[in-house]
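Progress against Task 2.4 (sequence-to-structure conversion) is shown through the following example record, which the project officer requested during the mid-term review.
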Amino acid sequence: MTITKEVKNDKIEIVTDYKNIQVRVQTTIKEDDVVISQSYTNRYVLNPDMDISSESEEVQAIANAVWTDAVKDAWTEKLASETL
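Structure tokens generated for the chain above:
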């Protein structure tokens, strides 16, 4: 009997005008390669000013594609206007 645990990004969405990236994480437990449990254990959001170096290659590629200089500038302006 071999039990394994797999954690992976299940769903990646781009939301808001600021191209925030929302990631849903799925955890799967298997016994002898048969799924015995599966759940969505976490969801997190990445903003255009965040360090993404520890994210998966897929998430990094999406961020690099959608986080243009214009999007990053708009995000910075939004944050600045909220602190006034």
